[in-house]
Amino acid sequence: MAYLPVVFLSGIQFLTFVLIDSIKEAQKEKKEPILKNIMVNVKTETGEKLISSQSIVKILKEADSYKIYTASDVFHTLKNLSGFEKELGINFVRINRSTIINLAFFKEYSFWENEKYILRMTNNDEFNITRERLKFLKGRLVEYSQKVIFKS
Question: Taking the model in full, what pTM does it have?
């Protein structure tokens, strides 16, 4: 019985430390940007320029070059798709070996054949996607929609 107050106070102190740590973690999460907006260096006919990642619709590997598509323009870049995957935020998903899309321009998907699906964008582009990548895309869509809804 003599040790009961000591054990009780130790338990309260431990719970207080756990609560303080969880509050600190929540504050760190609030400081992180919800959706990254980075500037991407691209090549143009007159030189180089920076474009916002939010204006990117898709990034494709075509032959030996990498192209960035916006709603109105096509740009060349030296960075490969793996580099973009690491740099871009949750609003970008690699849907196959040669394509990264911006979820802001995602429209819908539907079954095609042999465990493959067709993914459609708002600009009517269509891409093939496997079941495994579709599962990842669905998870990313949920995460992305939660970030966009709770942004304000």
Answer: 0.71
